[in-house]
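Below is how a single chain appears once it has passed through the pipeline. First comes the sequence as given, then the structure the pipeline wrote out for it. We keep one example in the README because the format questions we get most often are answered faster by looking than by reading.
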Amino acid sequence: MNAFRKLRDVAVLTRPHNCLIALTSVLAGAFLASGQIAPDAVPASVMAFFVCAGAYALNDIYDVTSDAINKPGRPLVAGRLTRQDAGALVIALWALGLGFAMLSGWEVVLFCTGWMAALWLYSWKLKTLGLVGHVAVSAVASSGFLLGAMTGGNARAGLMPFSIAMLFHLAREIAKGVSDARGDRAAGVPTLAVRLGVDRSLKVALWCIGGVIVLSLVPYVFRLYGYLYLLPVVLVVYPLLAICILKIIRAGNDTAAVERVSGAVATLLKAAMPAGLVAFFLAGV
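Resulting structure:
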């Protein structure tokens, strides 16, 4: 039973469901590039999974103080895992990621080491730089499409999904920052929501969501992608984005309401991600 609990806490720490999105984005980029999944894309996608998992564990190490207020049930805050446990886990996961990167070639190894460096810098310092931190982690989260397209032999095919995903992740990161603002402020972490205020920060997320809607139409309008791409976008992604927009508008400048809806907005945006990935796969058909 103790082993099961420990394994459950490791899963809570590493968020494997989120890491699957990173894995799938690499495969989607590869499929967009060539209409098939290149052999090198498979170990590259597994690398993305492990690097992402390690990054989540690393982030929790740095966020113990703020999580004590925002998320007191997290494994490190509750004492079910120690920082030493988490540190060893980060090393093991990133070593696995680097090992799988080596199976795909030196370009993927460069991606892997670049991701690890950027994600460590984010947890250590960049998240305290407001919008800069949000942009940095969103760029890393979205660049799986570029990596996948590179393994498929056509890196340019990853530019459009990277751009759309970048705005999408940026909106979600800002919304998450708003929901965590109380703990970040108490911990002395000057995130965008702490610097700008929660109401204005969520308005920035609103503009990002609007940008996603406009930009996601571009590849269809210019016939880069066909109608199959548009189906999950219109049927699933846009309705969820519309709900996010309505929630943000209704919250207005009411700080309590903004803090209340920000978590729901972040959850809705994450719920839309699988449909977006399906859309990119269908664009490659």
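The chain has a mean pLDDT of 95.

See the next section for the split statistics.
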